[in-house]
């Protein structure tokens, strides 16, 4: 089929759309006026108005009377309802479910709306590749030996420096470099708990944590965490008093899946309560650098006696999931973490550790992060607006101030596992709610990843998902 030439208004519309999706124009930013567009693009006022009207019809921009057009911010849907109550200790069984959810994952034709994987276009992959090639040349002899505490010292110093900028001062000596955050969490929990022990998590929480505890033969107790304030402190206190808990794994900054964060006052209370019961907290800090207002939450460690709590993080969500660089700052458990790392995988590949240190030292990371946050916020607005337009009445939506995810509560008649199956037939993958709970709660919730490359195909996929949800919602017999 011959490609037709774009009309002038389509060209301007695409150009403005690219500025919005690329983050150059963020939520609430003013769009160039009709007069400015005419001058910049050498078009007539009618053409400029047509382009703006189209963007407005697609909810990308909105008009303020006598002021002009602005980039759309997020719609105000109600917040999703939290988990019902503390769920008593039991062994999690989510692995099979998760495996099923990720079945179509590697299919390049699938529009992946669920998995928390950043689209490569959001990351500085060329710069990272350059650092890796340079490190491979410079440290070629590292391929001929195992690493030691000396070979990754450069990276440990860079991480200690970044954490100290977040108010968390520590020596590089207590940091162990790991193969991503998953490895970090695994080592941290094994340093403070044994098979059969009970670990407290938030509900909902990242399914990877539940899978890990399942594989380690540990039991899980979960405490409700709300979309606006994070962990329910009163329930947390009750759980600590009532049950014998070995450790808590918390995601207090832009949590997965709901994007909620604890404020400083609540961080202090959580740390004090855990200290009173002599329970170490393992903090998963992986999204903490992704606050849309460019501020960074202080890690929980800074609220207590330094060394009592463990801090895990990685570069997977901010720089490169493929580098597989993570860390644990183990506090007084650092030697145990180090020993466990030796036992499980000896070291993390040293050449990539050196490449990561090189990238962090280069000074471009903060600039990249500012762009990434802007893009994530823009995508979150667009996806929120698309959900508000396409999903059934009664849908509720989280409003995170950072991170990757939107937590969506559909009307109760919609079953998210069945929605997953239906979506999969349309080449769309989603993350259904029950994988975020060790008791299978959240049957009418889904998690949506906003770290994607926005396109008309994504927009159409969200619309299709909305239609599928409508079908379930309107057919009560399907759910009986
Ligand atoms: C909260 C949380 N922790 C840990 C991980 C795993 O991170 P990594 O890829 O660095 O192992 C993820 C990935 O989705 C996550 O969302």
UniProtKB/TrEMBL annotation:
InterPro entries: Aminotransferase_I/II_large, HTH_trans_reg/aminotransferase, PyrdxlP-dep_Trfase, PyrdxlP-dep_Trfase_major, PyrdxlP-dep_Trfase_small, Tscrpt_reg_HTH_GntR, WH-like_DNA-bd_sf, WH_DNA-bd_sf. Residues 6-74 form the HTH gntR-type domain. It comes from the Bacteria. Pfam families: Aminotran_1_2, GntR. One of its GO terms (molecular function) is pyridoxal phosphate binding. CDD domains: AAT_like, WHTH_GntR. Keywords: DNA-binding, Pyridoxal phosphate, Transcription, Transcription regulation. SMART domains: HTH_GNTR. SUPFAM superfamilies: PLP-dependent transferases, Winged helix' DNA-binding domain. Coiled coil: none annotated. In the C-terminal section; belongs to the class-I pyridoxal-phosphate-dependent aminotransferase family. This is DNA-binding transcriptional regulator, MocR family.
């Amino acid at each position: 089929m011959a490609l037709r030439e774009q009309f002038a208004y389509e060209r301007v519309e695409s150009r403005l759309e690219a500025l919005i999706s690329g983050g150059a124009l963020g939520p609430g930013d003013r769009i160039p006026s009709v007069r400015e567009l005419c001058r910049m693009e050498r078009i007539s006022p009618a053409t400029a108005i047509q382009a703006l009207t189209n963007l407005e019809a697609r909810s990308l921009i909105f008009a303020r009377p006598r002021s002009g057009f602005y980039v759309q911010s997020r719609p105000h849907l109600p917040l999703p309802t939290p988990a019902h109550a503390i769920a008593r200790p039991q062994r999690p069984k989510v692995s099979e479910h998760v495996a099923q959810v990720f079945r179509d994952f590697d299919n390049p034709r699938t529009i992946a709306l669920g998995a928390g994987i950043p689209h490569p276009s959001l990351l500085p992959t060329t710069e990272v590749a350059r650092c890796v090639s340079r490190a491979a040349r410079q440290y070629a002899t590292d391929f001929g030996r195992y690493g030691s505490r000396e070979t990754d010292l450069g990276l440990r110093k860079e991480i200690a420096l970044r954490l100290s900028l977040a108010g968390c001062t520590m020596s590089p000596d207590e940091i162990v470099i790991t193969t991503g955050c998953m490895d970090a969490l695994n080592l941290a929990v094994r340093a403070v708990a044994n098979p059969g022990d009970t670990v407290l998590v938030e509900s909902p929480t990242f399914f990877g944590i539940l899978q890990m505890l399942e594989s380690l033969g540990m039991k899980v107790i979960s405490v409700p965490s709300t979309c606006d304030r994070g962990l329910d402190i009163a329930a947390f206190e009750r759980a600590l008093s009532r049950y014998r808990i070995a450790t808590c794994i918390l995601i207090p900054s832009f949590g997965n899946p709901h994007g909620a964060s604890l404020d400083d006052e609540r961080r202090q209370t959580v740390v004090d309560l855990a200290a009173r019961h002599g329970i170490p907290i393992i903090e998963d800090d992986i999204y903490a650098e992704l606050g849309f207002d460019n501020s960074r939450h202080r890690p929980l460690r800074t609220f207590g006696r330094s060394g009592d709590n463990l801090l895990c993080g990685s570069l997977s969500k901010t720089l490169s999931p493929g580098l597989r660089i993570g860390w644990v700052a183990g506090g007084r458990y650092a030697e145990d973490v180090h020993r466990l790392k030796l036992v499980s995988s000896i070291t993390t590949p040293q050449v990539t550790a050196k490449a990561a240190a090189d990238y962090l030292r280069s000074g471009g990371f903060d600039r990249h992060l500012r762009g990434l946050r802007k893009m994530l916020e823009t995508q979150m607005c667009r996806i929120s607006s698309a959900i508000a337009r396409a999903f059934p009445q009664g849908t509720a939506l989280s409003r995170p101030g950072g991170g990757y995810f939107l937590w969506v509560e559909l009307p109760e008649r919609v079953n998210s596992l069945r929605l997953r199956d239906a979506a999969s037939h349309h080449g769309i993958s989603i993350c259904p709610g029950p994988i975020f709970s060790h008791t299978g709660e959240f049957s009418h919730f889904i998690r949506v990843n906003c770290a994607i490359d926005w396109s008309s195909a994504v927009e159409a996929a969200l619309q299709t998902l909305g239609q599928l949800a409508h079908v379930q919602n309107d057919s009560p017999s399907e759910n009986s």
